[in-house]
C-alpha cells in the first residue's frame, strides 16, 4: 500500500492501460544496496521526479513490484491492460525524487530486476527512466482519476463536482496511498460490500490504503469500522478521507495481528503472498458466522491462497474473477 497498495496513472499511461494501482508487496527479496533509503511524500512543494517503469508478465508483477516499492513513494503503480495479451503487457511504475542519490537507486533497482530472471518468472522488459516535474505528474494523475460508479457507490475525487444521482458518494483524495476504485480488485471489494450484510456489523479493513473500503463499509451502516495499515502515509490518508466523508473510522498504524476481537466482515484487498503470510491472523479476526473478503489474488496464486486459508479453517463460499484477478469470500 493499496502498493500499493493508491492507484494512480502517470503521464505515460496509454489507452491500453485500464487501471493503475499502488501496492506494498511482500515477496522474497533480492538484495539491493542498503543506501537506497525510502523518501516520503512531501505534499505539493516543487520537486522533480524520476519515473521508473518496467514492463512485466502478469506472473512477475508481484516480484517486480516488491523491488520498485523499496524506493518508490509509498509503493508502486501497476498498469493493467484492458485485454490481456500475454508477454510483458503489465507495467510496474515507481516515482522517486530526483536528488543526489536518485541514479544510484536506479542502478540498484536495475540490477535487482535482472536477478529476477533466475527465478523462472514470466518475461521482464527493460527498466525505463524519465524525469517528470511535480506539477506535471500531479495534473496528469488528476486527469486520470475521474468519477466512477461501482455498485451502489459513486467514487469521485475532491476536485470533481459530479452529482451522486442516488448513489452513495465516496469523496477521495488518495494522495500517494492505495485505492481509488479504478482497479478490478477494489471494484470487486466494493461490490462485495454492497452485497454483504454490513448494517449494524463490526468491520475490519486490513491494508486500508486510502480508506476507500472502510469508508464504504461505514456508509453502508456498519456499527464499528477499524482500518489498519502498516504504512503511516496510508494511515494519514485514510484518516483524512474518513473525516472528509463524515464517517467515524478507527484508523490504526497496525496489522491484522495487532487488533483484538472478532469481526462480522474482514476486508483484505492485498496480494496473494501477503494473504498466505497472514492467513492465521485473518482467521483469528473472522467471527464464527463472519465473512472474509480476500482480494488482490492472481489466478496463478489462487490455489496457494485457498489452501493457506483452508488450513486455518476458512472455506470459499463465493468467487469472482475479473481481468485475471480473483476475489474470494470465505467463512469459517
What does this structure look like?
- By secondary structure, this protein is of the alpha/beta class.
- It has 2 domains: 17-140, Alpha-Beta Plaits, CATH 3.30.70; 145-331, Vaccinia Virus protein VP39 (Rossmann fold, 3-Layer(aba) Sandwich), CATH 3.40.50.150.
- It is built from 9 helices and 15 strands.
- Residues 1-46 have low confidence and may be disordered.
List keywords for this structure.
single chain, 332 residues, alpha/beta, Alpha-Beta Plaits, Rossmann fold, 2 domains, five-stranded antiparallel sheet, disordered N terminus
Short description:
With 332 residues, this protein is α/β, with parallel strands linked by helices.
Number of helices: 9
Radius of gyration: 19 Å
Count up the domains: 2
**Strand order, biggest sheet?**
11-10-9-12-13-15-14
Number of strands: 15
Instruction: Describe the sheet with the most strands.
Output: 7 strands, mixed
Give the averaged pLDDT, no decimals. Answer: 79
Q: Would you identify the CATH architecture of the largest domain?
A: 3-Layer(aba) Sandwich
Which range does the strand content fall in?
Answer: 25-35%
Layout of strands and helices, then pairs:
Layout: E1 17-19, E2 48-56, H1 61-69, E3 77-81, E4 90-97, H2 102-115, E5 128-133, H3 134-144, E6 148-150, E7 153-157, E8 168-172, H4 184-195, E9 202-206, H5 212-219, E10 224-229, H6 232-244, E11 250-253, E12 263-269, H7 272-277, H8 279-285, E13 286-298, H9 302-311, E14 315-322, E15 325-331
Amino acid at each position: 500500500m493499496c502498493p500499493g497498495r493508491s492507484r494512480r496513472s502517470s503521464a505515460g499511461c496509454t489507452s491500453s492501460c485500464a487501471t493503475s494501482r499502488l501496492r506494498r508487496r511482500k515477496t522474497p527479496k533480492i538484495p539491493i544496496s542498503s543506501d537506497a533509503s525510502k523518501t516520503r511524500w512531501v505534499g505539493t512543494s516543487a520537486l522533480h521526479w524520476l519515473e521508473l517503469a518496467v514492463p512485466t508478465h502478469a506472473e512477475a508483477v508481484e516480484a517486480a513490484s516488491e523491488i520498485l516499492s523499496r524506493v518508490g513513494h509509498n509503493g508502486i503503480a501497476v498498469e493493467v491492460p484492458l485485454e490481456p495479451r500475454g508477454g510483458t503487457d503489465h507495467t510496474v511504475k515507481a516515482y522517486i525524487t530526483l536528488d543526489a542519490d536518485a541514479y544510484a537507486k536506479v542502478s540498484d533497482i536495475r540490477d535487482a530486476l535482472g536477478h529476477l530472471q533466475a527465478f523462472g518468472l514470466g518475461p521482464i522488459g527493460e527498466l525505463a527512466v524519465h524525469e517528470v516535474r511535480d506539477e506535471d505528474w500531479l495534473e496528469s494523475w488528476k486527469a486520470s482519476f475521474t468519477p466512477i460508479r461501482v455498485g451502489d457507490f459513486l467514487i469521485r475525487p475532491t476536485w470533481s463536482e459530479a452529482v451522486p444521482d442516488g448513489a452513495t458518494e465516496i469523496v477521495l483524495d488518495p494522495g500517494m496511498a492505495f485505492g481509488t476504485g479504478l482497479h478490478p480488485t477494489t471494484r470487486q471489494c466494493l461490490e462485495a460490500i454492497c452485497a454483504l450484510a454490513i448494517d449494524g456489523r463490526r468491520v475490519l479493513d486490513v491494508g486500508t490504503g486510502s480508506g476507500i473500503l472502510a469508508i464504504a463499509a461505514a456508509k453502508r451502516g456498519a456499527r464499528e469500522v477499524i482500518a489498519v495499515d502498516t504504512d503511516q502515509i496510508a494511515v494519514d490518508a485514510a484518516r483524512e478521507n474518513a473525516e472528509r466523508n463524515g464517517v467515524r473510522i478507527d484508523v490504526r498504524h497496525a496489522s491484522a495481528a495487532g487488533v483484538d476481537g472478532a469481526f462480522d466482515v474482514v476486508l483484505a484487498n492485498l496480494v496473494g503472498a501477503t494473504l498466505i503470510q497472514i492467513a492465521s491472523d485473518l482467521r483469528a479476526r473472522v467471527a464464527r458466522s463472519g465473512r472474509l473478503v480476500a482480494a488482490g489474488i492472481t489466478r496463478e496464486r489462487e490455489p496457494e491462497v485457498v489452501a493457506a486459508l483452508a488450513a486455518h479453517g476458512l472455506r470459499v463460499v463465493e468467487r469472482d474473477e475479473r481481468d485475471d484477478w480473483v476475489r474470494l469470500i470465505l467463512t469459517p
